[in-house]
Design goal:
alpha+beta, BirA Bifunctional Protein, domain 2, 3 domains, 14 helices, 17 strands, Aa-tRNA-synt_II, Asparagine--tRNA ligase, cytoplasmic 2, asparagine-tRNA ligase activity, coiled coil, protein biosynthesis
Length: about 550
């Protein structure tokens, strides 16, 4: 009996309209996102707001002239396409039928008629698709011209706030409006879901979220192109003014003074005037020289070693971070498991994006094998969260095991490839190019591939040196159609080894003194990895261009907004 009551209560709750906590309307996703496609809410009065995505008008049979028109709230003023049609709390004869890539409905009914002396327009019914951005699918709204001035709604992009009854389509499949899925809106929703899933995975597995600095004095990659931050250029520009007009005026005055001096020289009687003119000419020449010297001083170059950074804001050179891994290590040595989710910046023009987002995790008391297990769990968790999208690549990750192969074996396999010519000939000791990695995942293994034990020269200085002295405990996870999705490895915990690696890479030691202190004063075995978030979005959406999976992509030569 109790179970029956509970089941009845659950069913009743499921068939209730869920009003938004922050506005007096219903979010469309709570209707069209239901398993029954909103049929359980038929007959409920709702208010929805959104934007007209498409419309279709159908002429109705001619009505009697005595049929009253409907007044639908305050009439919009000005340009209809920029106005919001407000009909809240005014009974409206319209039907709202749920539609996903098709469906239909018909409207009719009545409200409180108000006699209005207006010419009888040709009667019609308008079918709208309205979307509020909460989901891909839209609601079909059916409005009779006897209820509203339907031409107000027949502009794509018009914002509307509508009240009406949810009804089933009277004739399924009729008056269907083709729904054009907006790629950017869909990608944004999926990106949001993946970000949320990332935080859930990390929090559920005991990772603490740490906000890492954007400004840094350290190059986490070593010899990479970084965006430099300075106030010196601004000061130089403020101190440099355009003196070209003033210089022209002074030169013209000098010309007149010289002509005056020639006249005074011919007239030897006025020697005092001649001396005064000569002094004026000398002052004018000195002023011209001073202006020209000021103009010849170029703005300071940040690549010039003579730049005095002690006069800069931080009294030293500063950059936008290209990775939080070094800073995150310090927190891992105190909290064991930490992660950061934020933007990183690369000034290398060969990269697709100058600004991207990275999920970086660090674990104390963990070696590379443990990290590789975490990587697989992470990817499978994220793919499970978006399983409803039915994307083949996500299903592949969720169901398959990851192929593991050493860098050395990968090079040997690529050397044996005969049906493809690589742009860059593969040799041991070089970085694997995108074409090499793609061929491994897509052509050879046809599934995600983990490549590990890279040569020490191609990976950052902080990767742990293996016993062979040639390779480091680093790995890349390569996914078909996407490329490198995750990169990471075990960190070098021994002071002597990492100190030597810094010297081998020719890095400025003073930048890394604070980092070396973690080893000087004792540390533990620790590892970490970085997930390139834009690549994860590409994997989940199937979008091939990385510029289409991030808002306002930043690329070389383009910063218009």
């Amino acid at each position: 009996m109790a179970s029956e009551i509970a089941a009845t209560a659950t069913t009743s709750e499921q068939n209730q309209v869920h009003w938004s906590k922050y506005s007096k309307k219903v979010v469309l996703n709570t209707i069209v996102g239901r398993e029954d496609r909103g049929l359980g809410l038929v007959g409920d009065q709702i208010i929805v707001g959104g934007w007209v995505k498409s419309f279709k008008e159908r002429r109705s049979p001619v009505r009697s002239k005595s049929l009253p028109a409907m007044v639908v709230g305050p009439e919009p003023k000005g340009d209809v396409s920029c106005s919001e049609v407000l009909m809240s709390r005014i009974p409206l004869l319209c039907s709202i039928a749920r539609i996903i890539f098709g469906g239909g409905g018909s409207g009719g009914g009545g409200g409180r008629p108000v006699e209005v002396a207006v010419p009888d327009p040709a009667p019609s019914v308008v079918y709208l698709l309205v979307n509020d951005g909460s989901c891909v699918s839209s609601l079909q709204v059916v409005i009779d011209s006897s209820v509203s001035l339907v031409n107000q709604f027949m502009v794509i992009g018009t914002s509307v706030l509508l009240e009406g009854l949810l009804k089933e389509p009277s004739v399924p499949g009729k008056h269907v409006i083709e729904l054009k899925v907006e790629k950017m809106a869909s990608v944004t929703r999926i990106r949001s879901a993946l970000g949320y899933s990332t935080h859930i995975f990390c929090q559920n597995n005991g990772f603490f979220n740490v906000h890492m600095p954007i400004l840094t004095s350290t190059d986490s990659r070593g010899h990479s192109e970084m965006f430099q931050v300075t106030t010196l250029l601004g000061k130089a520009e403020m101190n440099t003014k355009d003196d070209s007009g003033e210089l022209d005026s002074i030169n013209a005055a000098i010309k007149e003074k010289r002509s005056r001096i020639e006249q005074l020289k011919r007239n030897e009687s006025d020697k005092e005037a001649l001396l005064a003119a000569l002094r004026d000419l000398q002052k004018a020449n000195e002023l011209v020289l001073q202006i020209e010297q000021q103009k010849s001083k170029s703005l300071p170059s940040l690549k010039d070693e003579k730049v005095d950074f002690s006069k800069d804001y931080f009294s030293r050179q500063a950059n936008l971070t290209n990775s939080s891994v070094l800073h995150l290590e310090s927190y891992a040595c105190a909290l064991s498991s930490v992660y950061a989710f934020g933007p990183v910046f690369q000034a290398e023009k060969t990269r697709h994006l100058a600004e991207s987002w990275m999920v970086e995790l660090e674990l104390a008391f963990a070696d590379m094998e443990r990290i590789l297990e975490s990587n697989s769990d992470d990817l499978k968790f994220l793919s499970k969260r978006k399983e409803k999208t039915c994307i083949d690549s996500l299903q592949l990750i969720k169901s398959s095991t990851f192929e593991k192969i050493t860098y050395t074996d990968a090079v040997e396999l690529l050397k044996k490839v005969t049906d493809k010519t690589f742009k860059t000939k593969i040799e041991w000791g070089m970085s694997l190019d995108e074409e090499h990695e793609s061929h491994l995942a897509e052509a050879i293994f046809k599934q995600p591939v983990i490549v590990y034990d890279f040569p020490k020269e191609v990976k950052p200085f902080y990767m742990r040196l293996n016993d062979d002295g040639r390779t480091v405990s680093a790995f890349d996870i390569v996914v078909p159609k996407v490329g490198v999705l995750i990169l990471g490895g075990q960190r070098e915990e021994q002071f002597e080894s990492i100190n030597k690696r810094i010297e081998e890479h020719g890095l400025p030691r003073e930048q890394y003194e604070w980092y070396l202190d973690l080893r000087r004063h004792g540390t533990v075995k620790h590892s970490g990895f970085s997930l390139q978030f834009e690549h994860m979005v590409m994997l989940a959406t199937g979008v091939e261009n990385i510029r289409d999976v991030i808002p306002y992509p930043r690329t070389p030569g383009k910063l218009s907004y």
